[in-house]
């Protein structure tokens, strides 16, 4: 049997409350230095989407939105505030299901999730109508953070460093949410093992495609927590076999094409 390298994940302590214009990469480098650590080749940082959106100024006051008749109808059908319904429509390519439990939408980036990723938790002013939107382009955000990390931290980390932006999403046939990659850079998004890898009995795998980015996002999210932990970045080590010395195709490459959607 092939030995599997040890995987470790830990949240970075001492990160600030992020605000528009702040550098996530600089905060990560400072946190590593405070721990007596440094960036290493093969390091992968799982970063909560919320702090990326905050630094990019993606807050929205729902009370400021002009509301369309379509939004009013959606709000009435689902028991939501009209402003939130309008924001969901504005952020979505299409609404797939609309119920009181959730509005399932295909975000304009192609990801399918509840309420187009719009959230008020851990957002200052959330009780008064302030919400946070996803980054305009999560893959571009991940690439920018990766580039800045390598420029600022230097050392061994100049090659093979990965960044995964994660948000919690539900799944069609399961209860609960799982951290999911919405943007990434410097890693393989998928590991296609079909046709070359074998099982314990020598049979060639025919259907196995590993969702590497989503698996890293899920592992990182468990370390980050979902409430008031205040740890929005996790460091994964031992997964360097999935890092690459370029930005790579991004999380969008892991989306199933609409033509293959079996749940429509």
Automatic annotation (TrEMBL):
GO terms for molecular function: coenzyme F420-0:L-glutamate ligase activity; GTP binding; metal ion binding. Gene3D superfamilies: CofE-like (3.30.1330.100), CofE-like domain (3.90.1660.10). Residues 15-238 form the Coenzyme F420:L-glutamate ligase-like domain. InterPro entries: F420-0_g-glutamyl_ligase, F420-0_gamma-glut_ligase-dom. This is Coenzyme F420-0:L-glutamate ligase. The gene is cofE. PANTHER family: COENZYME F420:L-GLUTAMATE LIGASE, PTHR47917. Keywords: GTP-binding, Ligase, Magnesium, Manganese, Metal-binding, Nucleotide-binding, Potassium. Its EC number is 6.3.2.31.
């Amino acid at each position: 049997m092939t030995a599997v390298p040890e995987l470790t994940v830990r949240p970075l302590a001492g990160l600030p409350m992020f605000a528009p214009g702040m550098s996530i990469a600089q905060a990560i480098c400072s946190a590593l230095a405070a721990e007596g650590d440094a960036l290493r080749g093969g390091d992968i940082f799982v970063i909560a989407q919320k702090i990326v959106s905050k630094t990019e100024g993606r807050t929205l006051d729902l009370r400021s939105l002009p509301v369309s008749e379509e939004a009013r109808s959606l709000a009435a059908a689902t028991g939501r505030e009209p402003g939130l319904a309008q924001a969901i429509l504005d952020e979505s390519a299409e609404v797939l299901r609309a119920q009181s439990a959730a509005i399932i939408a295909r975000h304009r980036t192609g990801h399918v999730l509840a309420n187009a990723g719009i959230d008020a938790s851990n957002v200052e002013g959330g009780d008064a109508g302030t919400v946070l939107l996803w980054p305009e382009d999560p893959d571009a955000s991940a690439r920018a953070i990766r580039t800045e990390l390598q420029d600022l931290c230097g050392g061994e980390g100049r090659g093979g460093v990965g960044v995964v932006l994660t948000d919690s999403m539900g799944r069609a046939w399961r209860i609960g949410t799982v951290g999911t990659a919405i943007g990434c850079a410097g890693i393989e998004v998928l590991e296609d093992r079909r046709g070359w890898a074998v099982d314990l009995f020598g049979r060639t795998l025919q259907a196995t495609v590993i969702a590497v980015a989503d698996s890293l996002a899920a592992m990182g999210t468990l370390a980050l927590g979902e409430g008031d932990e205040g740890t929005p970045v996790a460091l994964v080590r031992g997964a360097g076999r999935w890092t690459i010395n370029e930005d790579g195709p991004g999380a969008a490459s892991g989306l199933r094409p609409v033509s293959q959607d079996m749940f429509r």
